[in-house]
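Running this now, will post back.
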Amino acid sequence: MEEIDVIIHTKTSNDDVFNMTKVALMMLHDSEKNYKFKVFLYETDPNSTYDYSPWIYKSFIETEPYNCSRVINKANSHITNDWVLIVNNDLRFERRWFSKIIDVYKQRPDIESFSPKDPLLYSMEYRAHFVGGDEDYHESYKVREFMAGWCYVMKKRVWDAVYPWDEQFDFYYADNDYAEKLKSLGIKHALVRDSIVFHYGSIVKGKQVNTENFRKDEIKFMKKWNIK
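Update: finished.
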């Protein structure tokens, strides 16, 4: 059975977060019969005592202030398999979601970075490509439309090419930075129509956008990539 490396982080400060993360892990493992998900979990609440051991390969406690890019970078020494997943803890994985990506990869081995589709995502462009058509994947670097930062699937070669993730983007614009890296390296990305993963996002987390930090990261991103 082929192993897939998985990076996930969570801040388990209460039972609700624990149950949400636990369900995401259980559904991930249950979604595929021919793949084994090797999960590396990063706990960003240093005081957390919740135990995910039945569903993960190894866990790590983060004691530094939260930085999603730093967490991803810390996983580098553990990434050994041919496919790598970076996933959120607020997802619902449908059956064969990963297999559907592999089906597209077999057709198009020149595409090495993928996102699944959340059917609840509202986007006219998104719908125009997949509703009523026969296209089963769409190549694009457009963040929050065809690049789902809450679930990235990539070949190990892509991981090696984009590593390290830029830690000046601790949350906002980390996805945009990944997109620009792929473009600069000539690595193709696609969203797969029949790979279904639901993302609960800020509705479940209760998070609000920090407009000040968002704007700061936007400026850093535009300066880095010389975007006017």
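The helical segments are 15-30, 68-74, 97-107, 124-130, 156-162, 174-185, 201-205, 211-224. More later if anyone needs it.
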